[in-house]
Design goal:
94 residues, alpha+beta, Arc Repressor Mutant, subunit A, two-stranded antiparallel ribbon, 5 helices, 2 strands, 13% strand
Length: 94
C-alpha cells in the first residue's frame, strides 16, 4: 500500500516514526504543563527529564507542538500538523 505523505508532515513523521518521541507526542503533551510532560515522559520510558526536554524542543522545532498560554499558565498543545502525523503513523503502522 502506497501512502502519499504531505510535504508539511514529512519532518514530523521522520522524527516520531517508531520512536519514544511518538509515544511522548501521543500520550504526554496535549494540554499539559512542562512539569507534567517531563513527569509523564519519565513514566513512559525516558531515562531523564533532560531527554524529555530535548525531544520536546525537537518536536517544537518541527512544528508538531507549541506552547500556549491559558488561564492556568503555559501548556503544551499538539498542533494540527502533529495530530495529522500521528493519524498517518497509525494508518501506516498500527
Amino acid at each position: 500500500m502506497s501512502v502519499e505523505i504531505p510535504r508539511s508532515l514529512a519532518p514530523v513523521l521522520r522524527l516520531v516514526k517508531g520512536s519514544l518521541m511518538a509515544k511522548l507526542l501521543r500520550e504526554c503533551v496535549d494540554g499539559r504543563t512542562t512539569q507534567e510532560v517531563l513527569e509523564c515522559g519519565k513514566r513512559i520510558g525516558y531515562r531523564a527529564a533532560n531527554h524529555v526536554w530535548q525531544d520536546l524542543m525537537v518536536l517544537r522545532g518541527a512544528g508538531a507542538i507549541r506552547l500556549v498560554s491559558d488561564e492556568d499558565g503555559m501548556r503544551w498543545v499538539v498542533t494540527p500538523e502533529g495530530r495529522k502525523a500521528l493519524e498517518l503513523l497509525e494508518t501506516i503502522s498500527p
